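Give me the fold.
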Amino acid sequence: MSRRELQFSVTEVRNALRCPRVFVLGRIHGRTVTFPIGSSCLGATFHRIVDRFSATVGTPTAGFMQLRPGSPVDVIARGLSLWLLDILVDELTKDATLSTMPGEVDDLAEALRELARYLADSVAGFESRPASALTALVRAGERPISVVLEEQGVTLTGRIDALYVTSDERVHVVEYKLTDEANESLDRAQVSLYRELLRREGLDDAQPTLLRFRPWMTKTVIAPADADSLVSSTLIPLVRQMVGWCESPEAAPPPQRQDICVGCPVARDCVKRYPERLVCRDEPPMAAARPRVNSVGDSVAPQPIRESLPPVRDAAGDSAAETIRVKILDEFRREGINVTAHAAIVGPRLFVIEVLRPRGSVAQLDRAASDVIHRLANEGLSVNYEKSGGRRQFVIARTDPQIVLLAPLLEKKADWLRASPGRFIVGSEPAGGIVTADFADPATPHLLVAGQAGSGKSWLLRAIIASLLHFHGPAAIRFTLMDPKRVTFNIPVFQSAIAAHLDGPVLYGIEDALPCIERLIDEMEERYKIFEKANVTDLTEFEQISASGEGIARRVLVIDEFQDLTVEARTAKRFCAGIQRLGAKARAAGIHVILTTQRPDRQTVPAVIKANLGAKIALRVASSVNSRVIIDQGGAEELLGNGDLLADLGHGLVRAQAAVVNT
């Protein structure tokens, strides 16, 4: 295709601004990519209603026609609202699926009322009758536009949402948006580009205007100078680059924003054409599962974007561990003790070296061990000597700790995780074993996590959530998140990636927590009624006998720093009572609780709560007393921080390094 034959849509320019590769993949497949994430499910209906309204402003309703000059703004707004809502009612009768979304339809109706109020304010500025003023105001709706950019050899096409001409004869090029401000920069670019296209058609000085409905309306007017600067400095050069990417698709760069790949509809095609690893595209939870349908309309098990990862060899760790092993043997020989040692276990944070006494008592080893530790400490190594029966081993903190990324662990445990929702990954043992847990296990129906600042608790919590949802869609598992300190989940990339699995926005205060807990208790009781009718005892049995194949989603309530919700005695009692009830009874109903705290003392974690939280993870804590509150023994106070943990997940205490979500 020659440059003179190229035609781009404004949506394609918007996509190229979002991610050049999305634009390129759309051109390759012969279609403009649309993004389901970050868009309103009723945006198309809103635009259709407003377009129908714009087409009929010349033939207003009888009630609106009767309004006289000088009518109050409220009266004009009421007339316009009735007009728009009549069209909405007609749309509802034509599309039966809208009746299944009453909440969204209510928001849509309110957005139309907001538009009516905005139009009424503008109509009131005219001296003529409102019906005549409306005709003068609304010059066009859904106006197509096509302009040749001679210098680029490209034809740009688009469809402007509306053109308004106010009483001061100022032309406004208007775009309606039913999303939040996440796409604000793209929206500003789009309406600025429409101003430029209108200018090239001969309509000078159109005012770029964004009307955003959520459902309340906010108006953003872009200064013409700012719009023109954006077009000349960014958009026109971008169009020139788009021409080059059409000729050389491999030259298209990845997106600069980290949240773009979340829910991208061409992510799999992107992996095939651009195989280099991108954190924002390939790491969980960005690649988290969302419901997919096969060619015959059946739900299918979601898959990660990448099917395999090359193993990572830790050559530097192997070399460092062997050097330390030799030093330990040399130090014992200096003490006159002949020992041997197994090859070191090389973990991400620890080296574990077991020493053996071929002949004689291990008591000699124990006596000499403190000298060995002292000499190694002089070389900057942090060493512990551990005894278990007749076994003796040195545990050495690595000077170059390695991050345990969640993605490789997910791939290794993919079959186990896919088999049932509620299963999750905690991290990696020093020997390479993957530490996992299952909420469906009666021994671990809920989880208690404790760790002081810097212990890696937030990392761990995000990784657990990501592993829970990675292979299961929102119909299988859903989350309610509470974050009183507003730090653990207040990461836009993470929130966007898991948004499909959330029951609502992240909650922050006790005024949100108590109603939420009460709703979960009510849902728990309703589920037990369903199980009783089905003659089953728990969610697992119900799913096995469900004739329709439609299961009930597992629900996970995650409360970070829950001690902040128990500060006031008035509400603390209700909170603890609710958590105790969920902890004691909710497992079989498929409702699970994760509680975390920085302050694991007996006041914060009373026995009545702890007793029902079968799974327990201790990261570094301040004292052995805190450690015993969580895992019933000391040791957590000696952990290294940054994800080093001790976990009791129903099979004895294990040490591991927490997995990390790479966001």
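Confidence is low (pLDDT under 50) at residues 290-301.
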